[in-house]
């Protein structure tokens, strides 16, 4: 067995959390001309560090391979746009000085969030490694650097007089293979009295609700509050507050500042969150050993439900082509024998095929045309938004299926 070192503390890591077998990159969508080409599969095997309890994947595909031409555009989710707008309003209300300071977003995608700061007259800068996505932001008038973020870029920007009064990142902390370089870069580019907010899916919710489909090769790390606090502390940053969010099935938003900045005192929520994680057992290696059996159980539940419906002659299609959906389908062995097709609002995914399973992706209007009996919602974290959009399937008696945290027919 090869030696693995924790990407944060460099302790030797050997303890398995869950092994989901071999899987292609979750955003490597297939064109019709590529259907008969070779696909590359990588191990989807998570490990936990016995010292810092960082759950992690090995790095098989480089960030350049994953993010240089990216298929995910944030603005196609109404729920996520609402979340971004509400965040902007909350930050400007809580930290009044932000209105005059530069707001920098790391992994700014298509400008889905910075557009709300820009509309208020706040200066903004996006940093986004995927050139195709960054172009969409620049078309909205959002200044965007096409680059990966870390120490080198932070030092370059500060040497040019660019620093952040508010530095934010949503669902990026888990996406960086060198988490030390990334957090060190944040410390460099943050103004002396600046604020950092980072949002990331909470490891506790992943394990509690069997959210194994959020494990894919873009996510190098799976984060608890306590581990993030430790990483920030090592790099001279103090986490002074935390909020629990409903996004992505349960996320955390942490607030941080320079460790020597006294303006922001630790809130009670910091202590409460650490106590909550201890009560769940995230500080005990034994807790992580039970997750794999929970994942197998969910796989069997889903397959049993789908087999029963297919035996009744029912038609089943999917909604969405998210990365998490590709983990679910590949791990469970669900292909066109179960799911005839899926649909997605993003034109960047339509007329392509899901990696591994080769399930075709169409425009959502396909559902009205074919009137399936069941729609399996793959981005279950926004199921309410999707069920509202597709309420019309009730006209022919159509119903919805969600798989996580438990298989339900709605």
TrEMBL record:
SUPFAM superfamilies: S-adenosyl-L-methionine-dependent methyltransferases (SSF53335). InterPro entries: Methyltransf_Zn-bd_dom_put, Methyltransf_Zn-bd_dom_put_sf, MeTrfase_14, SAM-dependent_MTases_sf. It comes from the Bacteria. Signal peptide: none annotated. Residues 247-405 form the C-methyltransferase domain. Residues 6-67 form the Methyltransferase putative zinc binding domain. One of its GO terms (molecular function) is methyltransferase activity. Keywords: Methyltransferase, Transferase. It holds the Pfam family Methyltransf_23. One of its GO terms (biological process) is methylation. This is Methyltransferase domain-containing protein. The lineage of its organism: Bacteria, Bacillati, Bacillota, Negativicutes, Selenomonadales.
